Amino acid sequence: MPAKPARKKAEPTLALDGNGPIYKQIERAVRGEILSGRWPPGHRIPPEHTLLQWFSTTRATVSKALTKMTEAGLLERRRKQGTIVAQSTESHAVIGFLDIRKEIEAKGREYSYRVLRSAKIVAGPKTAAWPEVPAGTPILHLQAVHSGFGKPEVLEERFINLEAAPDAVHADFEAETPNIWLLARLPCTRLRHSIKAEIATAEQAQQLQIPANGPLLVSRRRTWADALPVTCVKLVYPGERNEFVGEFNPLES
């Protein structure tokens, strides 16, 4: 009976940085794969016996690193399935301005922004969510998507009052997002925010690359400069991956 060919040994794909305890170096190596997007949610990481061979260390050291990352919510250990990358939940501020680019980059993901439909001028009020704008007011309507590592994360639909920001007609929103463009030109003296759960339409599901009829979290924000309405924006997030968090501490100055 012919001998079985020797199984090819898996080549290590991670490297230690030589800084501090081994278990901490393993944590950083695994975290780097997750934050880079190479190991997305649901990805099964190499088993412990493979990792200890790669890093020339003990099972206890590898187990400690994976346990720490599991406790931090980055990994999930499933019986008979091994250890997988956890489905993360992104947190967003309930109050204040949302800088989606900073939020995505803070998670270690490469940010990109793409206009889905070219901006066009419509007559207000175009949306029932913006009742403060008189009928006939010229409004710039824009639809775009924010992505991390090329994967859609947030859909944006924005209305800009051209009586407040007439230069928006000539702005290049592919080069500079509307939120940053507006904040650099108009002071915000008032902001109103609401959050609502919705079910994804077929178009939204396709744009966000989520299952049809999946849950959404929809953030609607309106801003003013003194008494003048400036912008009304609708931000659509996949519901299973996101949450909004607010904190009020009257004892903190």
TrEMBL record:
Name of the protein described by the UniProt record: UTRA domain-containing protein
Source species of the chain: Taklimakanibacter albus
Source taxonomy: Bacteria, Pseudomonadati, Pseudomonadota, Alphaproteobacteria, Hyphomicrobiales
